[in-house]
Amino acid sequence: MSAAVKPLPFGPMATEAMAIETSGLTKRYRRGAALSDCTVTVPEGRISALVGPNGAGKSTLLRLLTGLARPTAGSARVLGGVPRQDPAFLADIGYLAQDVPLFRRLSADDHIGAGAHLNKRWDGASARARLRELNVPLDRAVGTLSGGQRAQVGLALALAKRPRLLLLDEPVAALDPLARRHFLATLTSALAEAEGRLTIVLSSHLIADLERICDHLILLAESRVQLCGDIDDLLAGHTVLVGPRKDTAALERDHTLVHATRTARQATLVLRLSGPVIDPAYQASDISLEDLVLAYMGAAAPAAYADLSAASTISTVGEQQ
Amino acid sequence: MSWLVWRQYRTSTAITGVLIGLFAVLLVITGLRMASQFHATFGACLAAHNCRFPADDAGLVSGWLGAVVEFSLAVPAILGMFLGAPAVAREAETGTAHFAWTQAVTRRHWLTVKTGWLLLAALAWGGAAGALVTWWSGPRNAIALSQFNPGTFDIEGIMPAAYSVFAMALGIAAGTLIRRVLPALGVTLGVFFAVRLVIMGWVRQHYMTPVTAIYNITMGNIPLPKGAAWVLGQGFRGPNGPLAVPGGSQVPMVADGFPAADIPAACRAYFTQGPGQDPLLPCLSSHGYAQYITYQPAARYWPFQFIEAGIFVALAAVLIAVAFAVINRRDA
Questions:
Q1: Which helix (H) or strand (E) is B236 found in, with range?
Q2: Distance between CA A243 and CA A241 in Å, rounded?
Q3: What pLDDT score was predicted for residue B275?
Q4: Do B102 and A102 touch (CB under 8 A)?
Q5: What is the tens place of the pLDDT at every residue in B162-190?
Q6: What span, in angstroms and rounded, lies between the C-alpha atoms of A203 and A168?
Q7: CA distance A223 to A32
């Protein structure tokens, strides 16, 4: 990649409707903050990847967006309203909690029947059709199904609401690669069917999967937002420089050094760009989504943790947000 | 919502139904036998209106059967523990609350329907157990006149239904507060029996001012109150209130257990060991000593049932209100 890159976007277009807008969203428990000062936006129609290490606050953020939990401070607007106990609001939210909690002794059919009684808008027929297509037995207790089948049941139930916002908390974590592929295929076809009316936020550790289907990214670490934006813009706004190990003060004057890995002779720098890099000593290359995520996660991690990854690592995460 | 409640609870409903059914079969079979035995033994005196009750129950109730019937004391607690406590706690513990509470019904609506059906079930099962035991106890009550006594009062009439409603509400509230099935179950059991014990042992006798009958001290027993009264206490009293009767067989007594040590100085001259204390008893009476019996008359049986049922239903209402206050305020 050349040294000339696009500037970082200055936030979403004013004309775009926002499915999610949070401002300083904070959730503290007795044991500490689960989410601090979280300000993110997700435009309507996106499929957003919510990534971050364990305990970064991903589940907390999703639960705050559904209204299952209430914030300690800050505010959230979801589909134009505050998350609340209101049938009209709840009807528009599809939520699949971590580990896909379902009534173990009830069958998929029972769940679909329950959904029909609990929702005014309910598309049980297509949920059944989708599960039949995937050979998920409809009449067996879901407790006896495989993890992949259960996840499909959970997703089918969430989609049967015909939600405008689908929040999925690590739905593929326990699935084998094939089941994962099926799950993500279901998700993308649902997104296509909805014709831009559906927004999805999907948390996962599997960045390769996310890269295939997501166009938006929210990166949490240490209970704070590290990155939020369209993936294309984020990738364009960062670069990897490989060059001699030398003082980076000049570079850091113009750009933000996210993360650096140094060996005895060589340095690999992840930069957040604010213009072209003009230093022939370095070779610039495109950054992959995985490297970008790891750079920010490494930067936010405690020093001892970050040191495990490289012989000598300095971490600077600016207050660029 | 009702559909989901029914789907979730139909197994437990079936199990409870079978258990109550077995209990019913046992009580109907033994109850019919007991009734015919009762008429065989007491038919003649009943026809002549000269039965003297309370009488010996003439082996009407075998020991194990009495124990089984007394076990119906636990029916409300069982309903509260196994149907009430998991109602919210299991859903919170297994995470299914996240499914239920993100459908297009509010948590309050969800809890209203669930609580409504469970309270109705408690009323039905408790009422059924109470009705069975009441019918079964008919002959025994006629003979022993014990239905007002603690332990019997609690398993007859409307009490089982009222206790069941309370236990169910307690289970639901404990589960909503604690959100874990086993601790909620334990708390339900503990609090239920604690409240029952306190009310049975210390509160119930004060629903209405007890009646105290006073008799002159005689050599014989004082007459018991009519019918199935609940005797709270009896003994002797002097000008300064009831006398403490010292225990032990070596304590000198006169008449039907009047402690010799309490004989006033003025009457001491008449006190001789052994029979022939005729001048002593009138002397005690003239100095303000008497025998008394304190009791709740038999006619207060139903008022007491309704007062106590009212207390437990009111407690249940408070517990349900707590559950509603908590379910929206706490995060899921």
A1: strand B230-238
A2: 6
A3: 56
A4: no
A5: 999 999 999 999 999 999 999 999 999 99
A6: 6
A7: 10
Quick one: tokens of A182?
């099926």
Q: Given an 8 Å threshold on Cβ–Cβ distance, is B95 in contact with A63?
A: no
Q: How many CB atoms lie within 10 A of CB A95?
A: 26
The upper half-sphere exposure of residue B260, i.e. CA atoms within 13 Å in the direction of its Cβ, equals 13
Q: What are the E-state strand segments in A133-181?
A: 165-169
Q: How far is the C-alpha of A80 from the C-alpha of A132, rounded, in Å? A: 35
Residue B269 has a pLDDT of 77
> Please, which pLDDT band fits residue A218 given cuts at 50, 70 and 90?
very high
Q: What is the pLDDT of residues B46-82, one digit of tens each?
A: 888 888 777 766 567 777 888 888 889 999 999 999 9
Helices A124-133, A147-160: inter-axial angle, 10-degree rounding: 150
| CA gap A61, A63 in Å, rounded | 5
CA distance B4 to chain A (A): 5
Q: What tokens were used for A280? A: 């022939």
pLDDT score of A309 more than 50 = no
Nearest by Cα to A265 from A243, A240, A245, A242:
A245
- Contact call for B102 and A66, based on CB within 8 A: yes
A 92-121 residues with CB < 8 A to B: 93-95, 97-99, 101-106, 110-111, 113-115, 117-121
Residue A306 has pLDDT above 90, yes or no: no
Mean per-residue pLDDT over chain A, rounded: 87
Q: What residues of A are in contact with residue B99 (Cβ under 8 Å)?
A: 97, 101-103, 111, 157
Alpha-carbon distances of A84 from A42, A287, B111, B155, rounded to whole Å: 19, 40, 16, 46
Check: pTM over 0.80? Answer yes or no.
yes
Using CB atoms, pick whichever of A102, A118, A120 lies closest to residue B1: A118
- Could you give the angle at the alpha carbon of A186 between the alpha carbons of A185 and A192, nearest 5°? 90
CB A297 within 8 A of CB A218: no
C-alpha A290/C-alpha A307 separation (Å) is: 19
pLDDT band at residue B280, thresholds of 50, 70 and 90?
Answer: confident
- Percent pLDDT > 90 in chain A is 60
- Tell me whether strands A47-51 and A199-203 are parallel, antiparallel or unpaired: parallel
CB-CB contact of A271 with A258 (8 Å): yes
Q: What are phi and psi of B234, to 5 degrees?
A: -150, 160
Distance of alpha carbon B105 from alpha carbon B267, whole angstroms: 81
Q: Which pair of tokens denotes residue B209? A: 């001012």
Distance CA A38, CA A226 (A): 9
Determine, for residues A85 and B107 on separate chains, whether the beta-carbon distance falls below 8 Å: yes
Model pLDDT for residues A54-94, shown as the tens digit of each residue: 889 999 999 999 999 999 999 999 999 999 999 999 999 99
Per-residue pLDDT for A1 more than 50?
Answer: no
Query: CA-CA distance, B43 to A246, in Å (whole number)?
Result: 114
Residues of B in contact with A115 (CB under 8 A): 103
- Provide the 10 A C-beta neighbour count for residue B143: 20
Backbone angles phi, psi at A261, to 5 degrees: -120, 125
Contact at CB, A68 and B100, closer than 8 angstroms = no
Tokens of B71: 């076990």
**DSSP-derived secondary structure letter, A164:** S
Which amino acid is residue A7, in one-letter code?
P
Least confident among A164-168, A242-246, B109-113, B303-307: A242-246
B263 phi, psi to nearest 5 deg: -65, 125
Q: How sure is the predictor about B251, in pLDDT bands with cuts at 50, 70 and 90?
A: low
